From TrEMBL:
Binds 1 [4Fe-4S] cluster. The cluster is coordinated with 3 cysteines and an exchangeable S-adenosyl-L-methionine. This is Coproporphyrinogen-III oxidase. S-adenosyl-L-methionine 1 binds at Y60, G120, E153. S-adenosyl-L-methionine 2 binds at Q180, R192, D217, A251. InterPro entries: Coprogen_oxidase_HemN, Coproporphyrinogen-III_oxidase, Elp3/MiaA/NifB-like_rSAM, HemN_C, rSAM, rSAM_horseshoe, rSAM_sf. Its EC number is 1.3.98.3. [4Fe-4S] cluster binds at C66, C70, C73. GO terms for biological process: protoporphyrinogen IX biosynthetic process.
């Protein structure tokens, strides 16, 4: 990818200083409705049992507890040192599995679960016994011999080499580390401290050999971060050599996440600096040999994500990019999200309400959405741009039997400003994202977002 650093001027950043979604779903979470209840969710599950039998499923499990609070956190997580709370939660999670199992059994439906993603919170905060119990329970729903992938998120504060080896024995083949930044001052400012030596020790060759892929999550825009300091972090990351890197932007929303008030606003880099930190990291990683998959994902050429781009099986889901073609998603645990057929749904946030629903033998649904045909077309358009950085109008037109130019007349008009800014190239009935546009790709997708038209900014939602 051609280096476009020189084109990133203060003026350009000012013009694109509008919040955009990461499009881990379309429509985004902010459009999902609280009027969507567990009854609507059951209607969706009924359709899944009749029409969705062949599509593989990714099971997402949300474990909400953490040992200590990172000040940048925007996840739904609860800090505890009380193991009884964890055991209590697991007993309810197991009952949610029972609820789903009973539903599927009643409908003679055996879900074709091919992937598991265990996220949080900090799943590695579970001790070995708790983790083992979870696996045994999952076996009532999943044929582990049928699994293609099992990812677990790990936190350096709660993971050990012993646990990593135990995970391997239980079928976990990918891990994702929350690294964020290696600069000691930045780490202190966000209360997330770990040394490169600790990570290196955890990822000994013996342990690395047992996983197909290791991901590092990094965050830019953190307090006390600068281009220089983040460059040092990237150099350490390159030495530690993860197979994948996810480079996310810190979202400062202290009104929604009270603990973020512990971050000094005067320590935060400004917008220009943030964009430059991101762009310099992108080119640094590309120069080193990582492939830039899109938005915030990088992978080594040997990683299956790169194969996904090559064989056009890349797709975007609630966790970012994935290879292997589209899977339906079923969520378990508070805040987890579901996506199947033309339904989205999200589980309740509050643990007390989650427990109450399970006690009442109800699916713990907070909100959801049933996609219209227009949503499905726009979702496809946005996914094409995100995954393959181009859009063939006639292909979409043929697939959905629409006249693309007519259907998206207003959007094509809006794209002209992006073409003028060098983000896009237009040829006959195709747009291609330029190297500069790759850095601003969410702005290109936003043009096709029916809910954010007319320059409307995106707002992070959730309690
Ligand atoms: S480990 Fe993750 S979920 Fe837990 S507090 Fe830190 S950022 Fe939040």
């Amino acid at each position: 990818m051609v280096n476009s650093l020189k084109k990133i001027t203060r003026d350009l950043i000012k013009r694109y200083d509008v919040s955009c979604p990461y499009y881990t779903s379309y429509p985004t979470l902010s459009e999902w409705s609280g009027n969507f209840t567990s009854r609507d969710f059951i209607a969706g599950l009924n359709t899944l049992c009749t029409e969705g039998r062949k599509v593989p499923i990714l099971l997402y499990i949300h474990f909400p507890f953490c040992k200590k609070r990172c000040y940048f956190c925007i996840c739904n997580s609860i800090i505890t040192h009380d193991r009884a709370k964890i055991k209590h939660f697991l007993s309810y999670l197991f009952r949610e599995i029972d609820l789903l199992n009973a539903f599927f059994e009643k409908h003679s439906y055996a879900p074709n679960i091919k992937r598991i993603h265990l996220g949080g919170g900090s799943p590695s905060f579970m001790d070995i016994e708790e983790f083992g119990l979870l696996i045994e329970k999952l076996k009532t729903m999943i044929d582990f011999n049928n699994l293609d992938e099992f990812v677990t998120e790990v936190d350096s504060n709660t993971i050990t080499r012993g646990k990593l080896m135990y995970y391997q024995g239980k079928g976990v083949d990918r891990i994702s580390f929350g690294i964020q930044d290696f600069e000691p001052e930045v780490q202190k400012a966000v209360n997330r401290v770990h040394t490169p030596e600790l990570i290196e020790d955890l990822l000994s060759p013996e342990i690395r050999g047992g996983f197909k892929s290791v991901n590092f999550d990094l965050l830019y825009g953190l307090p006390l971060q600068s281009r220089e300091s983040f460059k040092s972090t990237i150099e350490i990351v390159k030495n530690l050599s993860p197979d994948r890197i996810t480079l996310l932007k810190y979202a400062h929303v202290p009104d929604r996440r009270k603990h973020q008030k512990l971050i000094k606003e005067s320590d935060l880099p400004d917008n220009f600096e943030k964009t430059r930190i991101f762009a310099e990291a992108v080119y640094n990683l590309i120069d080193y040999g990582y492939e830039y998959i899109g938005i915030d994902h990088f992978a080594k050429p040997t990683d299956s994500l790169v194969a996904g781009v090559r064989d056009r099986t890349l797709w975007r889901n609630f966790n970012g990019f994935a290879d292997g073609g589209m899977h339906y998603i079923i969520g378990l645990g508070p805040t987890s999200t579901h996506g199947f057929i033309n339904y989205y749904a999200q589980n309740i946030y509050s643990l007390a309400e989650y427990y109450k629903c399970i006690d009442n033998r109800e699916f713990p649904i907070l909100r959801g959405y049933k996609l219209s045909m227009d949503d499905l077309i726009r979702r496809d358009v946005i996914n094409e741009i995100l995954c393959y950085h181009s859009l063939d109008f006639s292909e979409i037109g043929r697939k959905y039997r629409i006249d693309f130019n007519e259907y998206f007349r207003q959007e094509i008009e809006t794209l002209k400003a992006l073409i003028e800014d060098g983000m896009l190239e237009f040829s006959s009935d195709m747009i291609t994202v330029t190297p500069l546009g790759r850095l601003f790709i969410r702005h290109i997708c936003k043009v096709f977002d029916r809910y954010l038209q007319g320059g409307k900014a995106y707002e992070i939602t959730g309690p």
